[in-house]
Amino acid sequence: MDNADHFDCKPKFGQHVVLISRIVIINVLNLGRALHLIDFYSVISVIFEKIHTTEKSVV
Question: What percent of the chain has pLDDT over 70?
């Protein structure tokens, strides 16, 4: 009976580890996406600033 209890505990522990790792991975991915979005917007703003400055210099 003790061995059976140990076997019952192992899958539950494994499921918890999988859930925690999934949550961590999802959080890391979301952080990465947020950082990429911030970089994306900053790059776009820099490009627009360059376009405006080139337009002024051309005109």
Answer: 78
